[in-house]
């Protein structure tokens, strides 16, 4: 993991563009990312949000290749709540990469940012995405009905939460 920077725009766009079919299954923003300029705008936006303490995003690398993004899509400093989001391209799923990344985000959130609560929202039927918070000890707190328009239908979201008082960092298996 490394912080996303403006200079990552071209490689980020290329990864999204070449994995468009897979990513669009659960990511509505994919259809709005049609040129490298769209990735540049996204990176400029998150850089501004980071400077204000409102978000923090990371590029995920494996085997020297950018293969995904994770981070705090929203940081509510007043209430000390962070909302984590993530995506990974298909060839890198199923190897524990995202579990390790989200575990790192938990450490950042609870120890560096002094958050009280961390949330993860997943499409209800996105079982791969839901497995991450379940594996890391989050509580399935609620299901929000029809909360995201995904191309031709509304999707319910499963909301997972973890409080700082509940967080017990566990060593990850060596094969992750």
UniProtKB/TrEMBL annotation:
Matches recorded under InterPro entries: Acyl_CoA_acyltransferase (IPR016181), GNAT_dom (IPR000182), Ribosomal_N-acetyltransferase (IPR051908)
N-acetyltransferase domain residues: 13-157
Annotated SUPFAM superfamilies: Acyl-CoA N-acyltransferases (Nat)
Source organism superkingdom: Bacteria
Protein name (database record): GNAT family protein
